[in-house]
Amino acid sequence: MRLEDKVAIVTGAASGIGRAIAEVFAEQGAKVVVSDINLPGAENVAAGIREAGGNAVAVKTDVADTEDVAAMISLAVNEYGTLDILVNNAGVMDNFEPAGDIDEAKWERVFSINANGVMLGSREALKIFREKKKGAIINIASIGGLYGARAGAAYTASKHAVIGFTKNTGFMYANEGIRCNAISPGAVETNIGASMTAINEFGMGRTQPGMALNPRIAKPVEIANVALFLASDEASFVNGAVIVADGGWSAY
């Protein structure tokens, strides 16, 4: 058991990558707080973990809301006594809008979830991690956080922000036993496309040459296994890193 008796929070865990991470962590002995704005979905995941012999509770969380995030962290501590791992996974896509077509409200929504949510969760978790002198933060970024032709301007900028935040946080707390790393997945079988409402034809058209180079689409568990490594003591010297998991997409 690589995470035996560890307490982990996974945001956006009702489906996709978050769900896979929650399930893999539980299989490896972690007590998991399944967090999502979709409470029925989170409860379903937590119930499945318990049925499989694991330990999990669900909580409804808007990661862009300060009070919701504080309540999520408090639930972990009240239920399990502490917190060891935070996975900031919750995120939404844009509609491939280039800079000239950005709607301010949509820009702010993407940033509030993708970037602000990572900051709020990390800030709250660090109160516990700094006191115990140990903790792991794993941020789910994106290949779009490293390249400019994988999404629209808002999503791309928000995931670049996540990577910058990850590196800064990893460095700032490196002497306190706290690690902060990011995973940049390529294309993964998830329902994040449900957050896309009206695709920008120009933006989508401009990204197509890069999209055509993608070797394949990943299963969520393939990303979850990377998160498992980063959460485990095996990654004790991995900090401030960005691990690309894209099947070789960015190698072209």
UniProtKB/TrEMBL annotation:
Establish whether keyword Transferase is in the entry. no
| A Pfam match | adh_short_C2
Q: Which PANTHER family match?
A: DEHYDROGENASES, SHORT CHAIN, ESTRADIOL 17-BETA-DEHYDROGENASE 8-RELATED
Which molecular function terms from Gene Ontology are attached?
oxidoreductase activity
Q: What is this protein called?
A: NAD(P)-dependent dehydrogenase (Short-subunit alcohol dehydrogenase family)
Q: Which InterPro entries match?
A: NAD(P)-bd_dom_sf, Sc_DH/Rdtase_CS, SDR_fam
Membrane-crossing ranges are none
Q: Which UniProt keywords apply?
A: Oxidoreductase
What Gene3D superfamilies does the annotation carry?
NAD(P)-binding Rossmann-like Domain (3.40.50.720)
- GO process annotations (BP): bile acid metabolic process
**Per the similarity annotation, which family is this?**
Belongs to the short-chain dehydrogenases/reductases (SDR) family.
Native source organism of the sequence: Planococcus koreensis
